[in-house]
Fold this protein.
Amino acid sequence: MMKKNLLAAAAALLLAGGATSSAIAADKLKVGFIYLGPVGDLGWTYQHELARQAVVKEFGDKIETTFLENIPEGPDAERAVEQLVRAGNKLIFTTSFGYMDPTLKVAKKYPNVHFEHCSGYKRDKNMSTYSARWYQGRYIQGEIAAKMSKAGVLGYIGSFPIPEVVSGINATMIGAQTVNPNIKVKIIWVNSWFDPGKEADAAKALLDQGADIIMQHTDSPAAMQIAGERGKLAFGQDSEMIKFGPKAQLTSILDTWAPYYIERVKAELDGTWKSGDTWGGLETKMFEMAPYTNMPDDVKKTAEDTQAAIAAGKLHPFKCPVVAQDGKDVECKGGDHLADDQILGMNFYVKGIDDKLPGK
Amino acid sequence: MELIEAIILSVLAASTPLLLAATGELVTERSGVLNLGVEGMMIVGAACGFGGAWLTGSIIVGALCGILAGTLMSLLFAGMALGLAVNQVATGLALTIFGTGLSGLIGAGFVGERITPAPHLYIPFITNIPLIGRILFGEDGFVYLSLALIAAVWWFLYRTRAGLIVRACGDNHVSAHALGYPVLRIRMYAVMFGGACAGLAGAYLPLAYTPFFIPGMTAGRGWIALALTVFASWRPGRLVIGAYLFGAVTILQLHAQGAGIGIPSQFMSSLPYLATVIVLVLLSRARTGGSTAPAALGTVFVPDR
């Protein structure tokens, strides 16, 4: 499949080179996408692909899209991005953190092409960044988990102890504590984004140790599937996982990039594209929650109310005071809640987590 | 008590793919061939195993597809490394890279599908015996098959004439050749057995462990199987102990984290490899006859005709 796309891109490249005077290319806006995994990975890349399809549906023959999948992070990515530029793409989405420097390099070389980089922090006048405030969803999940847990013990499978994952754990706990102040969480790091076997083992270990709700920040549906097998409950990750646990999935954080992609493509078409940084949340539908399932109506109602409150800006998961593990209040730099910088660089556990953050 | 039983059950399941793949590699290496393509053969076995089971609805057909796929992959290796006498290390590494790509291609059609995993053994009354019942009589068939297989390999290598000849090829191919044994053909059979085992080990993952296929799902287990062969110093008995030890380390480190015991998880994850290095050092310091590597391991053999 990838080969086919590379061939298509190569063919496009030849065409663009050979027929510069033709008007065919000039009419349509060409939009390119770089994907980390295969489009069928059921997770991260799949969600970006869904958004691309939504863009195609929205604009029809006004645009033409190309994607390159399975592009490793690092130097190879630079070649891939450049290939898209040479094929005549005027707006290019690079959809993984590791594409940051390659994208920036190519952006500097081609000032007339616009770039959109997902989840990074380096920008330029023709390179924007975008990401989602997933911690908002984690807060809602924490609330649901605390209401649904009979044991009062949550099981959390972490990938790597980086700020994004740590802020997710903290948001979960703060949400859970609003329901049950004595809620406990067991955390297992699998040191991988993707190892279905190990994720399944971690889920088993957590359930065996008395947790009855599984939450994950890893990419495969293995944990969901174990929870389903054991008659326990779980939350999905990145995409809809209910197929793997029809009686287990409570909800899932769904990466919905479509509205953002459509907005940016529209801006490009209108000639109003500007570089910027977008860190959107529920309020802009940068991500959504999968339908609330396998829970009683009152829990569902609470979850929906919380979701609405966060979306309306009335509730901030990291509302001050945020108490760290040592019992001290965290400095409140964002007015009545933690500042974005503090969330993006979060490297501490909140009070109530009876574990040590690796490396601390 | 229940927790101990649960841990042992998890360890059994986690160790099985390692034991299966390492059993095959042990025979391959005992014949004098170093096939570093275990990971590649495993992942292709996983893709084909899942595909077979998904299309037919039968776990057994799936397992057979996995075995067949692994064997075909190993024949590719045999053609290069034995037939054309290409460097074995390079060929093995290439096989892994090739297998990773190929499995993605094969599996593209059924990513996101799921199957019913292999059933667990259930014997009325016996399986219900507290503690030992589920461990000895309540796992899926692959677990018992892997143990039977390594026992058979032990018997073959040490109790049969054919096994002796395989070992002779691995220790001194020139002498074996001089005695009139078809060294290359024997090695090819050993490589094929290794491929079949790796394919089955790979198929175990989507058929019994996590019943779906995703590219890259073997996640380095082939490399652990290779380390395990060295750790076991090419002996079947030690291989069983090693496989369960490696499996136990993986599972126990997860439990240690869940229980909040403060051992860095990165350190625990690296333990199997660390243990392998230590064993290698111990082996090279205490050279007691027969316990070290097959003398002709990894060397190319071109018979003079």
